[in-house]
Amino acid sequence: MVNDNGLTSLSCKEITASIIICTLDRPQELETCLETLKNHETAVSYEIIVVDNNPGSNQTAPVARKFGVRYITETRRGSSYARNAGIKVSRGQLIACLDDDVTVGPGWLDNLLKPFANPVVACVTGLVLPANLETESARLFEEYGGLGRGLEGKRFDKNIFNKKLGIIPTWEIGATASAAFRASIFQNPGIGPFNEALGAGVATGCSEDTYLFYKILKAGYTCVYEPQAVVYHRHRQNLEELKRQIFNYSKGHIAYHLLTLLNDRDWRVLPYLFFSLPRKMLIRFNQTRHKESSYPYKLLLLECRGFLNGPLALYRAWRNVKKLGQTTAREIAQAKVTLPPAKTRV
To answer: How confident is the model at residue 183 (pLDDT cuts 50, 70, 90)?
Structure first.
């Protein structure tokens, strides 16, 4: 069945999927992730693609060989460059993204892909739980917001995008630590691949996923949050790593909103940046001051510093993409023409 947007409804038995894992010199985390996928039971035919974002170190290739997965390289640094490289060579009708520092729970893939039986669904995200909360940094990250989005399923569609007076809080949809997409959307000029000015490994630090969710909704498609698709994320293990992460998240948050303004002419972002966000931060400072929150001042101040650095970070990332080149929807479509058919993995 095909809807007006050209998206095909699929059952699990008909689906072919590509699981893309991007990594940069974290062989132990990658091995743990692949080990859980090796033993994962699913009704879906799938392939695993590991994208090495620093092949010169030779830390990732041995792990990929050990598990017999497809291994490709992308020397341009950045999670978006790496994911787009994986998308170009993927052969599945659906593309699932995993971070290398997660492990998958039982039924993860089937539950993540099940909502695609509805032909209007173009993106599904899953529940990301902490692998452990033994360290202070892991507990603080959960208090910051973590990566989980609750235990109830949610649906985000074009009505949310069109009718909401304020900004579209696409970060509430989920994260590419565990997310799946119809492969066809990356060939759609109105959506296209991940924006390479955003994401880990470039100046902006993150938000490539939230901007892709934004483009999907803007194009009239639907995103679903499916909490039965569970993965477990290894949070940062010390405070210095957590500080870098929060600083990057804050820069990326502003960069994302600026892109919706500059690229998409979404003027709803202006009152958010100049009124709603400062007000929200003042409330959080007050909560800490009155002991209503244990979230520390130093991390709140770090967030503010990240917000202020967001515009410069976006400019630096944009200059980097201009220098290295940008992946386009047309480029992905052309790459698909020469691909062999998907192979079944049992």
So the answer is: very high
Q: Are 307 and 277 in contact (CB under 8 A)?
A: yes
User: How far is it, in rounded angstroms, from Cα 199 to Cα 256?
Assistant: 10
Q: What are phi and psi of 53, to 5 degrees?
A: -90, 5
Tens digit of pLDDT for each residue in 302-341?
A: 999 999 999 999 999 999 999 999 999 999 999 877 666 5
How far from 90 is each of 108, 251, 340, CA to CA, in Å?
20, 31, 10
d(CA 282, CA 296): 14
The strand pairing partners of 59, in sequence order, are none
pTM of the model: 0.93
Answer yes or no: is 27 within a domain: yes
43 occurs within a structural domain: yes
> Which residue in the block uniquely carries the two structure tokens 């492969």?
183
Which range of residues forms the domain containing residue 332? 12-237+325-337
- Return the amino acid letter for 303: E
CB 341 within 8 A of CB 287: no
d(CA 135, CA 132): 8
Neighbours of 246 (CB within 10 A): 22
User: Which single residue is written with the structure tokens 């001042």?
Assistant: 297
Cα–Cα dist 246/197, whole Å: 18
For residue 192, which amino acid is it?
Answer: G
